[in-house]
Amino acid sequence: MKPAFLLFLLTLASGCAIQNIKYDRDKILRKYSDTYTTFIDQNKEDFKSVYLDRDNIESIQIDRKKKALKITQIKQVDLLEIRQVNWDSINGTKESERKGRIDMVVVNAVILTIDDRNKPKIDLNAILAMKIMQQEESKMVGCNRGDGRILLIITK
Which of 95, 107, 143, 154 has the smallest number of Cβ neighbours within 10 A? Predict the structure, then answer.
């Protein structure tokens, strides 16, 4: 009777509601972002608008009972909000080229809507490339949308 009871307890304990997973942003977005609350270093965040450096992720725990996704970073970093940045100074454009506004923001080939444009928060270490395309450049690549410039951001 005792071995059966111990086996039952062992089986019960191994079926825990908390599970550790690896950082795969696309998989997390597909499986968990709509139904789970995301916490990054104990701060509640909308994971759809957060871009983290995968090299700075210590652990990710899924708590199925509480419907929570807990991401812990190795080193806590301040996330850059797109609306906080003076893009002209970063891009190094000349004063004569600064005419016009940023009309479209594209992060990892996803065009952000006007409502979502100021929401993204990005870990600076996660950025691989960032460029502001002028009107002439955007028309050369076949994007004739809007009169302003396009901000392209590519993350790890």
Answer: 95
62, two tokens: 């899924």
Measure the CA–CA gap between 150 and 135, rounded to whole angstroms: 8
Q: How far is CA 81 from CA 26, 61, 77, 144, in A?
A: 21, 25, 12, 27
Q: Measured between alpha carbons, how far is 139 from 146 in angstroms, rounded to an integer? A: 10
Q: Among candidates 153, 93, 98, 90, which has minimal Cα distance to 123?
A: 153
Please count the other Cβ atoms lying within 10 Å of the Cβ belonging to residue 151. 22
Structure tokens at 141: 């690549």
- Residue 126 contacts residue 77 (beta carbons within 8 Å): no
Does residue 95 have a pLDDT over 60?
no
Q: Which residues pair with 107 in a beta bridge?
A: 110, 153
Q: What is the DSSP letter of 43?
A: E
Q: Choose among 28, 120, 53: nearest CA to 36.
A: 28
| Digit-coded pLDDT (tens) for 108-134 | 888 876 667 667 888 989 999 988 887
Average pLDDT, the chain: 78
